[in-house]
Specification:
Its cofactor is NAD(+). The protein is built from 10 helices and 13 strands. By secondary structure, it is of the alpha/beta class. Helix 2 (43-46) links the parallel strand 2 and strand 3. Bound molecules: nicotinamide-adenine-dinucleotide (NAD).
Length: 318
């Protein structure tokens, strides 16, 4: 048993999920090293932690080799553009962080004898032909489509993670994260929840791509952080799907946000993006069986907390 505090590296720790994870790790008594290049994350997400004992920020691009003096016991590798708007704006950066970046962070895990958790994604399933998606489903990815830079970067990162385990015995885990939402998302990141909230708070109609009947399963960020911690502290390697099984049509998500903000339910329609998945819902039985995890916060409650955050805290985040 270790007596010194657990020292944890979070790559992408200034992002939406990463900063929420840093908060939680510090609350749990860990020391946290946050490495981020701020390509899609924000200083404001971690400003409140800068003076916290046990918190260290390293401004670094993990595409370059990463050196961190001292012990590291756990690594959460979250660094990557994550929203379609971001990764289509940063296509080569996305491929590089999934490939060279993941290689460098895995090399660090190997050198430090740390447990490594990869934040992978439901996008490894592409536009799925099997529904809901179990971990055994091998995916339907268009290798040259507009989402391929992200999907293939993550698929490569998964392969690399498993290769480090097979070649060097590195202790690894792979989390396949499905749509997650909550405070600290950027209003302009193009994902459905912040886009609808931005439109609702500005009194504008909701913009719907396609018919709006395409579904999303939305998991509140605190639940996702619980799941990532459970997987890290378990002996399992995964891949493990993490997300909500509460599947909703995009039109219904707009309806909930309309109700909660008082914005009238009006729509403007645009074509569905190429390769936009029609259906998205994880089979989370493995997470439930291995980790005893399932989300605790329902979508209406999570949306209420998120809308409240955007209303009250957004000013300091612009
Ligand atoms: P985010 O964009 O808010 O956070 C990503 C962070 O990584 C940002 O702070 C960014 O600046 C940083 N980063 C990017 N490239 C980097 C590099 N080369 N070096 C150092 N830092 C770098 O996104 P998020 O939603 O918090 O996603 C976090 C992770 O979870 C990502 O790996 C993403 O692929 C994965 N994920 C998220 C979701 C979701 O619904 N939010 C779903 C599936 C997977």
């Amino acid at each position: 048993m270790r007596l010194d505090p657990t020292r944890v590296l979070v790559t992408g720790g200034a992002g939406f999920i990463g900063s929420t994870l840093c908060d939680r790790l510090l609350r749990d008594g860990c020391q946290v090293v946050c490495a981020d290049n701020f390509s899609t994350g924000r200083e404001a997400n971690i400003a409140h932690l800068r003076a916290a004992p046990g918190f260290q920020l390293i401004t670094a691009d993990v595409v370059e080799p990463l050196e961190i003096p001292g012990p590291i016991h756990e690594i959460f590798h979250l660094a990557s553009p994550a929203s379609p708007v971001d990764y289509q704006r940063l296509p080569l950066e996305t491929l590089r962080v999934g490939s060279a970046g993941t290689d460098h962070v895995l090399a660090l895990a190997r050198a430090k004898n740390a447990r490594f958790l990869l934040a992978s994604t439901s996008e490894v399933y592409g536009d799925p032909l099997e529904h809901p998606q179990p971990e055994s489903y091998l995916g339907n990815v268009n290798t040259v489509g507009p989402r391929s830079v992200y999907d293939e970067a993550k698929r490569y990162a998964e392969a690399l993670t498993v290769a480090y385990h097979r070649a060097y015995g590195t202790d690894v885990a792979i989390a396949r994260i499905f749509n997650t939402f909550g405070p600290r998302m950027r209003l302009d990141d193009g994902r459905v929840v912040p886009s609808f909230i931005a439109q609702a708070l500005a009194g504008r109609p909701f913009s719907i791509n396609g018919t709006g009947k395409q579904t999303r399963s939305l998991c509140y960020v605190d639940d996702m952080v619980d799941a990532l911690l459970s997987l890290m502290r378990s002996p399992h390697r995964g891949p493990v799907n993490l997300g909500s099984t509460d599947e909703m049509a995009v039109l219904d998500i707009a309806g909930l946000i309309a109700d909660q903000t008082g914005n009238p339910l009006r729509f403007v329609y645009a074509p569905l993006g190429q390769d936009d998945p029609e259906k998205r819902r994880p089979d989370t039985r493995l997470a439930h069986r291995l980790l005893g995890w399932s989300p605790a916060v329902g979508i209406p409650e999570g949306l209420a907390r998120t809308i409240n955050w955007f209303r009250t805290d957004l000013g300091s985040f612009r």
